[in-house]
Amino acid sequence: MNVRIAQNSGFCFGVKRAINLALKAAEEDDNIITIGPIIHNPQMVQKLFEQGISSVEDLSKVENRIAIIRSHGIEKNKKELLETKCKKIIDATCPYVSKTQEFGKTLYEEGYQVIIYGDENHPEVVALKSYVPNNEAMVISDPKELKGFSFRRVGVISQTTRKLSGLQEVVSKILEISNEVRVINTICNATAVRQEASLKLAKASDLMIVVGGKNSSNTKMLAKICGDNIKTYHIETSQEICKEWFDENIQNIGITAGASTPDWVIVEVYNKIIEYIGNGEKQISEFSEIPVFKED
């Protein structure tokens, strides 16, 4: 059996930046909180908790403390409240998310009806919507939600972790019901690259293991992309792996991981698979030792 990992798996730039900011802050102070989970990975959040960084949702608990704004960003009014209560604010919002927030505000000011393609309950989208004045942004996750609407001028932005093909479907529908449409593709390039690499590996595998938080939007998207092509399991840790998954018909096993999945979690998954398939491969200690899938 071959076990290979998709290129670009694991932490993206925005997540690395957020974690590094948190760890640096922990070296200087022991009274640090994040407003909501800093990233969507329970194992990493627990790791930070063990280093004195706790996650809170209740803003009444931020008084005179150092607060870290999570990588997904927070609502504009909450950020303004933090500025009046906190000892210090460390903004770990992914720069690509921050840019999307700016685009939403600008489109509104230029007279466009702002439409956000994404999950209205996702923290990134909840925050993004708050940066469009007067709460006038419309959030949709499916073109069908536009039935019965018509617009004069529409500005479209997207949750950064969505699929490009989904954004294209939404824009196609908006073109039918609008006189003028301006589209800013705010899907993070790292997301698109990761999705493409995972799809290529899925098509060359008999089984895919997708590693990452069950609450992670980009990881769930990877699981869907892979699952549309091959048998796929979405797991958070190596403890979820079952030996029965690897029968004699499984020769090529693929691994991919979400943008908020730590390297050490992926290493544990790889080692557990090697243990179960028993093909003589050695256990590894570094993420860089995992064989990477590359097209011929």
Could you walk me through the main structural features you see in this protein, from its secondary elements to its overall organization?
The chain has 296 residues and is an alpha/beta fold. It has three domains: 2-10 and 190-289, 3-Layer(aba) Sandwich (Cobalt-precorrin-4 Transmethylase, domain 1), CATH 3.40.1010.20; 13-92, Rossmann fold; 96-187, 4-hydroxy-3-methylbut-2-enyl diphosphate reductase, catalytic domain (Cobalt-precorrin-4 Transmethylase, domain 1). It contains nine helices and twelve strands. The chain has helices spanning 13-28, 42-50, 76-85, 95-109, 123-130, 164-176, 189-203, 217-227, 263-277; strands at residues 2-5, 32-35, 53-56, 66-69, 88-91, 113-117, 138-140, 151-158, 178-183, 207-211, 232-235, 252-257. The strands form three sheets. It has a four-stranded parallel β-sheet with strand order 1-12-10-11, with helices on both faces. α5 links the parallel β6 and β7. α4 (95-109) packs parallel to α5. The model has no long low-confidence stretch (mean pLDDT 94).
Helix-strand blueprint:
Elements: E1 2-5, H1 13-28, E2 32-35, H2 42-50, E3 53-56, E4 66-69, H3 76-85, E5 88-91, H4 95-109, E6 113-117, H5 123-130, E7 138-140, E8 151-158, H6 164-176, E9 178-183, H7 189-203, E10 207-211, H8 217-227, E11 232-235, E12 252-257, H9 263-277
Parallel strand pairs: 1-12, 2-3, 2-4, 4-5, 6-7, 6-8, 8-9, 10-11, 10-12
Helix pairs in contact: 4-5, 7-8
Tell me the series of helices and strands, N- to C-terminal: EHEHEEHEHEHEEHEHEHEEH
Q: What is the architecture of the largest domain at the second tier of CATH?
A: 3-Layer(aba) Sandwich
How many helices?
A: 9
Strand content: 15-25%
Which structural class fits the helix and strand makeup? alpha/beta
Low-confidence stretches: none
Top-tier CATH class of the largest domain: Alpha Beta
So, the CATH homologous superfamily of the largest domain?
A: 4-hydroxy-3-methylbut-2-enyl diphosphate reductase, catalytic domain
The first-to-last residue Cα distance is 18 Å
Number of domains: 3
Q: What's the alpha carbon Rg, rounded to whole Å?
A: 21 Å
Side by side, the strands of the main sheet go 1-12-10-11
Question: What's the shape?
Answer: flat
**How confident overall, as mean pLDDT?**
94
